[in-house]
Design a protein that fits this description.
The protein is of the alpha/beta class. It has helices spanning 4-14, 84-98, 147-160, and strands at 16-18, 33-34, 68-70, 76-79, 103-106, 114-119, 131-135, 139-144. Strand 4 (76-79), helix 2 (84-98) and strand 5 (103-106) form a beta-alpha-beta unit.
Length: 167
């Protein structure tokens, strides 16, 4: 069992999703559409100076951004009605390592800050497993045409968290 200091240090380290804008939104907005590849591979940066994002499966496109989204005890996960169960699963996945029992809200308007999970029929061209993930300092926005795609987007969010989250 971890002592209190170690747990607090771990919480502080793991609450940040690195590389804002890391994976991202529609080509129309100048961001990146991410979609599972046929065979899982690890993505490596094209140059020695570019950051490396080990995301499996490799995104079709990745646009590195600047900054970090910080997960805090007050972070809200907003979902549409169809994605509420996935929002609650994300809370269960994060709670053991963070100690945060995040709030999940469904319906109404998506907040400007927090984690947003929603189905978007306009992304039908990405297929049932495709998704778009846009990470900024204020918000993580995951969208997909089908539930499977949204599930994969959440798995990518989990991969972007510091490794301490899963120890």
């Amino acid at each position: 069992m971890h002592d209190g200091r170690e747990r607090r240090a771990r919480r502080a380290a793991l609450g940040t999703i690195t590389a804002l804008g890391t994976l991202a939104a529609l080509a129309a907005t100048g961001c990146t559409a991410a979609r599972p590849a046929a065979a899982p591979t690890t993505m490596t940066a094209p140059t020695d100076t570019a950051p490396v994002y080990a995301v499996i499966p490799r995104p079709v496109r990745l646009v590195p951004g600047v900054g970090r989204f910080t997960l805090t005890p007050r972070t809200v996960i907003w979902t549409d009605a169809a994605s509420a169960a996935l929002g609650h699963q994300l809370v269960r996945d994060l709670e053991p390592a963070t100690g945060f029992t995040l709030t999940v809200r469904s319906g109404g308007r998506a907040p400007a800050r927090g984690i947003v999970l929603r189905l978007d029929p306009a992304l039908d061209s990405l297929g049932s497993e495709g998704y778009v993930l846009d990470v900024t300092p204020a918000r993580v926005l995951a969208r997909a045409a089908a539930p499977a795609g949204l599930f994969y987007a959440v798995q990518t969010v989990r991969q972007l968290l510091p490794p301490a989250v899963f120890r």
